[in-house]
Amino acid sequence: MKIGMSPDTAAAPVAADKPAAAATATTAALTAAAAGTANVAGAKKAPEASAKIELSSTATALLAGVPEDGSFDAQKVGRITQAITEGKFTVNAEAIADKLIANAQEVLSRAQRH
User: Fold this and answer.
1) Torsion sign over Cα 61, 62, 64, 66
2) Most CB contacts within 10 A, which of 41, 46, 90, 94?
3) Is 28 exposed, middle or buried (0-12, 13-18, 19+ CB in 10 A)?
4) Where do runs of H (alpha helix) occur along 1-114?
5) Hey, how many other C-beta atoms are within 10 angstroms of the C-beta on 43?
């Protein structure tokens, strides 16, 4: 598992074939749609879909943003967001390292079973 990028490696653009203005307008339109607002200043209306799709119940639940098992804690997210905004959020590097190692061990043990 690789964490971070080498400073020698340049990041590839996500949508190299789209003009920057179109990408910005699309991003603004999607942001406005997600926020439930009307047209944001300068945002263009999103193009109509060229294909119809039907999402599974699992995908629909994921897009709804709240898992059915109650594992999402909106208050905790709010506290963390506020701490980041105020510059008071501290990262526990030891806890992150421990969890990364545990995750790597789990992945390796699964690979060895197969």
Assistant:
1) positive
2) 46
3) middle
4) 20-35, 57-64, 74-86, 93-113
5) 19
Q: Is the pTM of this model over 0.85?
A: no
SS3 47: coil
Token readout for 57 is: 């119940």
Distances (CA, A) of 11 to 6, 14, 16, 39, 108: 10, 9, 12, 31, 29
Task: Read off the tokens for 69.
Answer: 């098992």
**Residue 108 predicted with pLDDT over 90:** yes
Separation CA 92–CA 82 (nearest Å):
17
Considering only CA atoms, which of 13, 47, 55 is closest in space to residue 30?
Answer: 47
Q: What are the tokens at 63?
A: 């897009």
Q: What one-character DSSP code corresponds to residue 18?
A: S
Rounded to whole angstroms, the Cα distance separating 81 from 71 reads 18
Please determine, for residue 17, whether its predicted confidence score (pLDDT) is greater than 50.
Answer: no
Q: What is the pLDDT of residue 86?
A: 96
pLDDT tens, 62-86?
777 766 676 778 899 999 999 999 9
